[in-house]
Write a structure and sequence with these properties.
Strand content: 15-25%
Largest sheet: 7 strands, mixed
Number of strands: 9
Distance between the termini: 60 Å
Radius of gyration: 20 Å
Number of helices: 5
Shape: elongated
Structural class: alpha/beta
């Protein structure tokens, strides 16, 4: 799982998600009014659908769960296969079997992110946090409004300590194009984030009805409204 680990790589990157790794995500799914989800890298038995079980225990409902090991390659799924899911939630593999397990290439992860975007459904993927610093991430971060940091996990049975690498939930939303990402610490309570109707940047509103991030944007919007109403450009 980690680049600095001496443990052998698990086949198909099968590292079941502990519940404490899923819990930080729950409040964000509720914020987004997600009720149903699709897990397209669910894993085979005996660890089949462990993430699905955590999510369903928290009140979300799986409308699709599959894995390449059971004959359903995530990269071949269509929008219809997701059965109307509100979101994709998955702990995906990051590398094809032919990729160097200790190398920096993550072709499979990038393929899965792109396929999720092509399906047109918001997707939450559990990824090593340093992916955000990678050049490979650049084309996808403009679609990433949220990163939710999780506690360090024990991915290997029998290990005495947590992983040396940090992991986070990355949200990729095909409808999001602002290119600004909010990183949420795992111990922080969820704050409301709105988008300024003038400059388009995300901000935390003091009042739920706030539409602008600053007085400057509020004044600019008011000026633009006056110009539109008058049908002229004000000096």
């Amino acid at each position: 799982m980690g680049k600095r680990s001496s443990y052998p790589r698990a086949p198909r990157d099968l590292y079941p998600t502990p519940r404490r790794g899923a819990e930080p995500l729950f409040q964000f799914l509720r914020r987004d009014r997600v009720r149903t989800f699709a897990e397209f890298c669910a894993g085979p038995s005996p660890d089949k659908y462990q993430l699905v079980q955590h999510l369903e225990a928290a009140g979300f409902r799986a409308v699709y769960a599959g894995d390449i090991a059971t004959g359903r390659d995530a990269l071949t799924l269509t929008r219809a296969d997701l059965n109307g899911a509100d979101a994709i939630v998955t702990n995906p593999p990051t590398k094809h079997e032919w990729e160097n397990p200790k190398g920096s290439t993550t072709h499979l992860l990038c393929d899965l992110i792109q396929h999720g975007l092509d399906l047109g459904v918001p997707a939450w993927l559990l990824i090593a946090h340093d992916f955000v610093t990678s050049l490979k991430a650049t084309p996808y971060l403009k679609y990433c409004p949220d990163i939710v940091v999780i506690p360090r996990m024990k991915w290997f049975p029998g290990s005495k300590s947590g992983a040396m690498d940090s992991f986070s939930w990355f949200k990729f939303d095909p409808a999001y194009r602002l290119g600004t990402t909010v990183v949420h610490h795992r111990d922080a309570s969820l704050t409301s984030v709105s988008t300024c109707q003038c400059c388009g940047r995300p901000f935390e509103p003091v009042r739920s009805s706030a539409r602008f991030c600053s007085d400057r944007c509020r004044q600019r919007a008011h000026r633009a409204h006056q110009e539109d109403a008058a049908g002229v450009t004000m000096p």
